[in-house]
Fold this sequence. Notes:
CATH topology of the domain at 2-43 and 98-158 and 253-334 and 355-371: FAD/NAD(P)-binding domain
Number of strands: 14
CATH superfamily of the domain at 2-43 and 98-158 and 253-334 and 355-371: FAD/NAD(P)-binding domain
Oligomer: single chain
Order of helices and strands: EHEEEEHEEEEEEHHHEEEHHHH
CATH class of the domain at 2-43 and 98-158 and 253-334 and 355-371: Alpha Beta
Radius of gyration: 21 Å
Strand content: 25-35%
Bound molecules: flavin-adenine dinucleotide
Amino acid sequence: MNILVIGAGPAGLMFASQIKKLNPQWHIRIIEKNNQEESVGWGVVLPGRAPHHPANPLSYLLDHETLDAQYLETFKLTHHNDSAMKSTGVTLCGAERKSMIKALRELCQSLDINIEYEQPVLEEAQLAADQYDLVVVSNGISHTTHFYREALKPKVDFGKNRYMWYGTPQLFNEMNLIFKAHSSGVFVAHSYKYSSKMSTFVVECSEQTYQKSGLDDMTPEQAEQFIAGVFSQELDAQPVIAQAGLKWRQFMTLSHEKAYDGNVVLLGDALQSGHFSIGHGTTMAVVGAQLLVKSVHEHSQNVEVALQDFNQRVMPVMKLFSQHAEISRLWFESAEDNMHLTTPEIAQAFAQRRASLPALPEALEAALKYALKR
Ligand SMILES: Cc1cc2nc3c(=O)[nH]c(=O)nc-3n(C[C@H](O)[C@H](O)[C@H](O)COP(=O)(O)OP(=O)(O)OC[C@H]3O[C@@H](n4cnc5c(N)ncnc54)[C@H](O)[C@@H]3O)c2cc1C
């Protein structure tokens, strides 16, 4: 089989490495628009301990220990400068995004998969079935480069809050959620360590707070200082650091009703993205990639049948993911309404925000169990 993968993020690299392991004779080409060093964001939270958890991409690496991933078992919520701690219930893994992508890239290269960096965006005609049996579009959600296929009924929504993905050398040993009342409004930080030296520090606030605080008119350096001041107690005089070129923005959710059209199939964020507050995007990329591997491997004689099978299995889990992510996004968009609550009350409201939905981890476990059955 001749396969083109567009985008060398977790989804594309996971799919390419796992399908190639099963079919070493297949030809797989990966193209990536950025260079090898570029990677958006700091650390992400992943499920379980590597190498035991199949939804954790680190489990597929031979040398996952070199990533300096951090395991988290405690959740800490801070509100009115008062904290409540409880168990996360499951082990979570904080990992640096750049190192994880580098390790997945090296895994692909060790399997003789060619990855071409700094590639121009391909024209539609270059994806035709006479050139590739299968084209996997795993190009994430960027604000500029999508593959819009009307047949797949794409939908784009923007959240109301503004957010910024900072990193900080302050080590947050728990999964932290910090609510901070400020004269310009409420700021919320989501923070946890992802290496022995750094933590992720995602901050969000309403548009009104964003405008009133003056963040819109600040230089990136002024914004870093302002946010470090808002969370000075938790940051303990450590800075927050923004990646060059990254701006405060509204979260973009990209959804589709169908995963494939002809020989082109969507994977990862390019198929369904979901709000960062549930920390599942990379996990969904792994689950989607493994389901696609299963369908393509089992129906390699007929790509149409393979993609039909994939569509049927992946869309229900993507729908559930999108419901969980939407409920969570909306909850954070109304954070100001909850500021009058006591710390135990807001902790309870946070824990309950997705309770009306079927559990996502169980659905993902079932999907992976099926996908990994050989
Ligand atoms: C603030 C924030 C916090 C998050 N926290 C977490 C978390 O804690 N846990 C978690 O699991 N997820 C988290 N996520 C989500 C996670 O980062 C994504 O879901 C995940 O990266 C999706 O992987 P992907 O491979 O589909 O897309 P991406 O990682 O976006 O990779 C897509 C790749 O395609 C490339 N590309 C784009 N266009 C083209 C093109 N036309 N041609 C070639 N290449 C192209 C891009 O350069 C990129 O390398 C977070 C997201 C945000 C915004």
